[in-house]
């Protein structure tokens, strides 16, 4: 009956009849003769990984974002057994087309055209590589389930990723950025015609910077810490600045990981953001999972922070939440990486 349904469907759509040898192979292997659509398989694949928990929630969230923004429009309704290399390549061709549209709009002399793409970002080579990795994960699952015979994602051609070159924020570069920022802010305010403009959004624009990665000088870092010292979580800023922890690793640090006598801190956990919530997870890389040495100044800062935290614990009394974290809110609740 399944073969008959496939033949009737082919006649209705005036499509080629199912390949005889392919149907025989699937029958002998005990596979379904028909083929799922990519969109249906993607959803079932994500649901299975959510159930088993074998992939981080943040990674699954990234997969779903790639599907929603890029994959769905191109082949959500394409059969799994039709995902040839040329079909997969269409996703990245479409991305290039959208990138070109954004760039052309940004260069337009028409304020309305420029405004139409404000907030839209170019999909760069690194993101394309991650999108291909999403495809590869899904198609590898399909191969394991014998829904398809080969994973073609790895054959798709993409430009090589060139990491951004880190540049030091020299005095001249800072002055140039400030001038560009003032000019852009004035232009955006003129376009808005008196309506409220977020200066922070303009300041965040990477186009104004000579590189996406700008490195502070020791003097600039010192200036920042001189201001941050008045903050409750100054010890967190100090620890990250002097020992190079990621935000999630700093927020995930526990008092049990801190050895005063040995002057060390074990990087054993990190807090990761999943939607609006934060969850505890393992360090991002194996290299991060280790013990770091602390200088005497950092040890002193952490001890002072513990004294302050103990005072907050007494003030809150029974309402205090004992998370065991070094860096918390006033009530003891863990301070997430986005706090």
TrEMBL record:
The keyword DNA-binding applies. The lineage of its organism: Bacteria, Bacillati, Actinomycetota, Actinomycetes, Streptosporangiales. Keywords: DNA recombination, DNA-binding. SUPFAM superfamilies: DNA breaking-rejoining enzymes. The keyword DNA-binding applies. This is Site-specific integrase. One of its GO terms (biological process) is DNA recombination. One of its GO terms (molecular function) is DNA binding.
């Amino acid at each position: 009956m399944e073969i008959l349904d496939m033949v009737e469907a082919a006649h209705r759509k005036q499509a080629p009849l199912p390949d005889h040898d392919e149907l025989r192979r699937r029958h002998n292997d005990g596979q379904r003769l028909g083929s799922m659509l990519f969109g249906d398989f993607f959803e079932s694949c994500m649901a299975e990984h959510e159930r088993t928990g074998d992939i981080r929630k943040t990674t699954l969230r990234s997969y779903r974002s790639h599907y929603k923004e890029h994959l769905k429009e191109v082949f959500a309704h394409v059969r799994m057994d039709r995902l040839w290399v040329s079909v997969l390549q269409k996703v990245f061709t479409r991305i290039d087309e959208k990138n070109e549209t954004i760039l052309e709009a940004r260069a337009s002399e028409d304020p309305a055209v420029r405004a139409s793409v404000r907030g839209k970002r170019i999909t760069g080579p690194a993101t394309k590589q991650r999108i291909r990795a999403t495809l590869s994960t899904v198609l590898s699952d399909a191969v394991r389930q014998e829904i398809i015979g080969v994973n073609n994602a790895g054959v798709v051609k993409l430009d090589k990723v060139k990491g951004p070159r880190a540049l030091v924020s020299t005095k001249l570069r800072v002055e140039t950025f400030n001038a560009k920022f003032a000019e852009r802010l004035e232009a955006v305010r003129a376009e808005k015609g008196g309506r409220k403009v977020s200066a922070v959004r303009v300041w965040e624009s990477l186009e104004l910077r000579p590189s996406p990665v700008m490195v502070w000088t020791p003097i600039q870092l010192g200036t920042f810490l001189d201001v941050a010292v008045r903050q409750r979580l100054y010890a967190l800023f100090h620890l990250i600045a002097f020992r190079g922890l990621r935000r999630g690793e700093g927020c995930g640090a526990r008092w049990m990981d801190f050895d005063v006598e040995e002057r060390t801190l074990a990087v054993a956990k990190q807090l990761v953001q999943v939607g609006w919530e934060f969850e505890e997870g393992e360090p991002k890389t194996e290299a991060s999972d280790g013990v770091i040495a602390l200088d005497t100044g950092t040890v002193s800062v952490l001890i002072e922070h513990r004294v302050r935290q103990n005072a907050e614990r007494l003030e809150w009394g029974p309402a205090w939440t004992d998370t065991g974290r070094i860096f918390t809110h006033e009530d003891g609740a863990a301070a997430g990486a986005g706090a």
